[in-house]
Amino acid sequence: MAANYSSTSNRREHVKTTTKPQPGFLERLSETSGGMFVGLMTFLLSFYLIFTNEGRALKTATSLAEGLSLVVSPDSIHSVAPENEGRLVHIIGALRTSKLLSDPNYGVHLPAVKLRRHVEMYQWVETEESRAEVAPGSILSVPTQAVIRRGSLRAERPGLEYTEDGQVKTETRYSYNTEWRSEIVNSRNFDREIGHKNPSAMAVESFTATAPFVQIGRFFLSAGLIDKVDNFKPLSLAKLDDPHVDIIRRGDYFYHSENPKYPEVGDVRVSFSYAGLSGDDPDLGPAHVVTVIARQRGDQLVPYSTKSGDTLLLLHHGDFSAEEVFHRERKSNSLKTWGLRAAGWLAMFMGLNLMTRIVYTLVDWFPIFRDLVDIGLKAFAFCVATSLTLLTVAAGWLFYRPLCALFISCLALVPIIIARTRVPAKKLE
């Protein structure tokens, strides 16, 4: 193992070259066997993900349809109507809190639902980059790992390696820069900690203060609704003074630093943001308006339990009709459903790839045949993953919409039919 070091005023870096024996056939076969187990677990997990996602999507869609048919809009938010007790109500109004939120350490006081203090520390950050050394004095610049074997160049795993005379050489470049980070960067994990040591803790911690009581007119929001007030906006500190002799304000930051223009490792800066402005403010603007759909329980807005076993507790930032709120929720449910379907398909595809990788390993010594097998295995994984994903989706809809389930099941056969019809064509070629 060899290393070279260099340094500039803004960047430090060094290069390390590691050498290890080229893995033999049995070793690669053992690694592939371990990958098969991981692939099997991923493959089984994909079924659970896809099937439960369909149940969740159906339950949510049913609950939204039920809620839209039952929701009522009170005549006024400034009085509690007894006839709406226990019903699903649609409320629109400006947020109002009982007291100011404050951080006395920095002289910040604000009428809002939430006040967040965000703390960052100036720290060393390590970046690792691997490159392959093809020949003495030359570097192979390829965006993915490249393995040279028997005069051929092919891409394999992320990173770069060079195989020569039974040895695998990897050149890794470690660079070090200083950045503002909100989390502690553990310099003990650096390849070279000397000269790049970070503090183990911050002198100031981040936190979020939340108003205990939040109202819209006469109605109090439950804790679940308060949690949904998350439209954080940066707070301008232009009109605030330096709170302490050791704290300097520059722009919208408070700096714990001797010279904020040239910070040192360990220096801290603090910024603030807020969500749900309460009441009109000459500097921050009008009070924040939200639309809430929840169950009325006295003067409180709490979760509404639907017949499908789901709950409705909705809050949207802005002024929306009940129909608009449910339309936005249906759209969100659809996007989430398709996103999880795609994730399930990808997990199934990757699992099948890992499970069939042993076939590729067995023919790895025959370059032309190896590449054909690789293409065939990926095509097989693609077709099987697509068909099984569609069948799993159909199973989720079987008892609720049997006709849709039957149609999706028919679609599941399409990839297999296409794959079978292409086999004779390849043989003729």
Give a summary of the structure in a few sentences.
With 429 residues, this protein is an alpha+beta fold. 35% of the residues lie in helices and 31% in strands.
Describe this structure in words.
- This protein has a domain at 22-70 and 321-429.
- The protein is α+β, with helices and mostly antiparallel strands.
- A hairpin with a 4-residue loop joins strand 4 and strand 5 (108-110).
- It is flat, with a radius of gyration of 30 Å.
- The chain starts with a strand and ends with a helix.
- The chain has helices spanning 25-70, 223-227, 322-355, 357-362, 367-397, 402-428; strands spanning 2-7, 12-21, 88-97, 101-103, 108-110, 112-135, 138-140, 146-149, 152-155, 162-164, 167-181, 207-210, 214-216, 219-221, 233-234, 248-250, 253-256, 268-277, 289-297, 300-302, 304-305, 311-312, 314-317.
